[in-house]
Design goal:
The complex is a heterodimer. Chain A has eleven helices and no strands. Chain A is mainly α. The chains are: A mainly alpha, B mainly alpha. Chains A and B meet through helix 5 and helix 6 of A and helix 8 and helix 9 of B.
Chain lengths: 257, 186
């Protein structure tokens, strides 16, 4: 089996990153997770010995082009070189941290290759967020009671307007969205549910505040705790998520009782 | 005369080791190729293992001679030296005769860590890594260890890619790659 060219691998990569740029880097994350699994290590050895990585490279060229790289083939070739080197070193010395550092290097390389388009994208996104925040604040001033936003954001926005608090203590809307998506996945049985009671108390509170649409007492602490929770989940449990194939072949539909 | 014979046997054995692998080359093959008596071989080398160790030592010495041309330069900054060192390795890989680094291949063929061949095969990589770390530190890079590791990954990856996909310009891409990594480290 060509471990890094299986559909399984590609769909893991796809699920791991939302944007092409994140997917390019996800190749390193997932290869790193797999290579530390005892049963899979052997396949990597065979892969390295025999395979020219053509399909993986083609996939990376695609992703690099979508990510706006100036020279997609060059970027893909460079990333494959880095990956091959990291696999060899990981096989020789599992404790070397080769894949992790290759991922860091890949980040720098991707940034370098997509610099110009990245900057313009950043400006667009930043402008978008600023507009949204302004709109929210304006709306709050006009009709605070009807604001259809999450309480955590309301607190944050009104906090920003208080005199003296120059830095808005805001729960990151993107992370909030991630938590809500995650909750949806728990309900559908796609991802393993963490034992909320075993979490650090602050993280449990932050999590419950989001899913129950409660206003946090301390948005700053919630922001930190939510970030920590998501990082922890991503690292330890997210890989156990099962995503049904998109073609629906083995999808089991449960009838609502 | 004696040293000439010794060099000659080592040369024949080295060619065979690098072209068809160390384990796949028996003493009989070496003797046949060199057209000498087996006794003659054992007069100069007490075992195949000794032959392998000498082969690795000689290969490493040749590579180091090339690299020390770069490290001995004092007309360029440590940062430029890092790049030049990687470039020198890349030129070595770009040689059409290149069949993988002898030490890397040997460590794959002799995976048992207590084996003398395995231990000797790790030496080159360790020295190279140390040299890279020292240069990175001289260049004022804080995470010198990380950069040295990343650069050695680039070198190894380029060697593998160049061997499995000749003519895709892996070496040139790898040179670029190394420069980007060096410049983005601090």
């Amino acid at each position: 089996m060509n471990i890094l060219e299986s559909d399984w691998f590609f769909s893991m990569v796809k699920n791991h990153g939302r944007t092409p740029r994140m997917r390019l880097l996800a190749v390193f994350t997932i290869a790193g997770q797999w290579i530390s699994a005892p049963g899979i290590r052997e396949s990597f050895r065979q892969y390295q010995a025999t395979h020219p990585a053509a399909a993986l490279k083609a996939y990376m060229v695609d992703m690099a082009a979508s990510a706006g790289a100036r020279d997609p083939t060059a970027l893909a070739t460079q990333l494959v070189i880095l990956l091959q080197g990291a696999i060899a070193e990981e096989l020789r010395d599992p404790a070397s941290g080769a894949m992790e550092n290759a991922g860091k290097a890949a980040h720098a390389v991707v940034c370098h290759a997509c610099q110009r388009s990245h900057e313009s994208m950043y400006r667009v996104v930043a402008a978008g967020i600023a507009t949204m925040l302004l709109a929210t604040v304006a709306w709050l001033v006009a009709s605070p009671a009807q604001a259809p936003v999450h309480p955590a954001m309301i607190t944050a926005a009104s906090g920003a307007m208080q005199p003296g608090s120059m830095v808005p203590a805001i729960v990151n809307p993107r992370e909030m969205e991630t938590v809500l998506h995650l909750q949806e996945k728990f309900k559908r049985g796609v991802c393993p549910v963490p034992h909320l009671l075993a979490l650090p108390p602050g993280q449990m509170t932050a999590y419950m505040n989001v899913v129950q649409f409660r206003t946090p007492d301390d948005p700053e602490a919630d922001r930190v705790n939510l970030h920590a929770f998501l990082a922890w989940y991503e690292q330890t449990r997210a890989k156990e998520c099962y995503y049904a194939p998109e073609n629906g072949h083995t999808l089991v539909k449960w009838r609502a009782s | 005369m004696a040293t000439q014979m010794r060099e000659y046997i080592l040369g024949v054995a080295s060619d065979l080791f690098s072209s068809q692998g160390i384990n796949a080359t028996s003493v009989d093959t070496i003797v046949a190729k060199a057209d000498i008596a087996k006794v003659t071989l054992y007069k100069y080398f007490k075992s195949k293992e000794q032959l392998i160790l000498e082969y690795l030592r000689e290969y490493d010495a040749r590579l180091w001679r090339k690299l020390s041309e770069v490290t001995a330069r004092d007309d360029i900054s440590p940062k430029a030296k890092l790049g030049a060192l990687v470039d020198a390795m890349m030129d070595w890989i770009a040689d059409p005769e290149f069949k993988g680094f002898a030490c890397t291949n040997a460590s794959v063929e002799f995976p048992q860590s207590e084996n003398p061949v395995h231990q000797s095969s790790l030496e080159f990589a360790r020295n190279l890594r140390n040299t890279l770390t020292t240069l990175a530190r001289e260049a004022g890079i804080k995470n010198a260890d990380t950069l040295a590791l990343q650069l050695s990954l680039v070198i190894e990856g380029a060697a593998i890619t160049e061997r499995t996909q000749r003519g895709t310009g892996a070496v040139e891409h790898a040179k670029c790659l190394a420069k980007i990594i060096i410049n983005s480290s601090h």
